[in-house]
Specification:
Structural class: alpha+beta
Largest sheet: 5 strands, mixed
Distance between the termini: 211 Å
Helix content: 55-70%
Strand content: 15-25%
Strand order of the largest sheet: 2-3-5-1-4
Shape: elongated
Radius of gyration: 52 Å
Number of helices: 9
């Protein structure tokens, strides 16, 4: 009879009923262990992110001052470009901007025929002073001791441009008239934005120049860049001043010409007048011939002593 091996005897498995009778503490322990493992992984990931962020922060702090300044200027320019890109969309959603904010350059030209220049000029000066403007330039042409033509350039406030034109038309006979309104709002806004960016860059460069640190080549580079930026600022400011002057004061060019008296055509001569003219012309011709003959004889007198002996020989 083969002896039984107790080591190889199958281990009795607990029945489902027995497993159900196990205490709930073991199941809760396994759940807690699983949750703890998940939390550990989550905290590890957060710690890694914070570590990477902290590693990037010192790198940003260690960047040179000019790099930080350029980065800020680039951010400002990017913000300006984003604003300009969003402007059309915003304009569709919002009501249109009032016309008072637009930059309009108004010009005009008026040609008149006046009786006398002096009288018209006195009237023009009075009208321009009443409108709050001034005479910018005058060019006058003379003929036979009198003013024949004149070109007068007026600068008047834009609010008085429309009211002044009818008063100037009444000074004489209108030969030609033109008016023009140019919208320079887009150019004005663009140059103003460039001026703002240039001033911000100038401030950054002044801060770098004030520190006085760095190599000589770096200091010279900052000074050259500062000179270039200041030249741009002067150009932008000059353009802005010119546009402000053109927008606030309209330019009106007056071309004046005086009336010239008409000269009547001479009447055709009658028969009697023609006979008289013919007789006088004949007398004048005969007189001219007699004078010519007499002059010829006189011119021959010096030759008579020589001619007479030769005639008799």
């Amino acid at each position: 009879m083969t002896p039984s091996n107790p080591a190889r005897s199958p281990r009795p498995r607990p029945s489902r009923l027995a497993r159900a009778d196990r205490p709930p503490g073991r199941r809760r322990g396994r759940s807690l262990a699983t949750g703890a493992a998940l939390l550990a992984l989550a905290f590890g990931a957060c710690g890694k992110s914070q570590h990477e962020a902290g590693a990037r922060a010192p790198a940003a702090e260690a960047a040179p001052a000019w790099a930080v300044a350029d980065g800020k200027i680039a951010e400002e320019r990017s913000a300006d470009l984003a604003y300009q890109a969003d402007a059309p969309t915003a304009g569709l959603e919002q009501p249109p901007a009032p016309t008072d904010n637009r930059k309009i350059v108004r010009t005009g030209e008026l040609s008149l025929v006046v009786q006398t220049y002096d009288e018209a000029r006195d009237r023009i000066d009075a009208l321009v002073r009443a409108a709050g403007g001034y005479v910018d330039s005058t060019r006058v042409s003379h003929s036979e001791g009198q003013v024949s033509d004149a070109v007068i350039v007026l600068r008047v406030p834009v609010t008085q441009f429309g009211a002044l034109l009818p008063q100037l038309r009444a000074l004489g006979e209108i030969q030609a008239e033109t008016t023009d309104a140019s919208d320079i709002t887009d150019q004005y806004v663009d140059v103003a934005a460039r001026l703002k960016s240039a001033r911000a860059l100038e401030a950054r460069l002044l801060e770098l120049a004030a520190t006085g640190t760095g190599k000589v080549t770096e200091v010279l580079e900052v000074e050259r860049e500062l000179a270039r930026v200041r030249a741009e600022i002067e150009q932008y400011e000059g353009r802005i001043r010119l546009w402000d002057d053109q927008v606030s004061l309209s330019t009106l060019t007056l071309r004046l010409s005086t009336e010239r008296p008409e000269i009547a055509a001479p009447a055709a001569p009658g028969f009697g007048e023609r006979v008289s003219r013919t007789f006088h012309d004949s007398v004048d011709t005969l007189s001219d011939a007699g004078r010519s003959l007499l002059l010829g004889l006189v011119s021959m007198l010096p030759w008579l002593p020589l001619l007479i002996p030769g005639f008799f020989l």
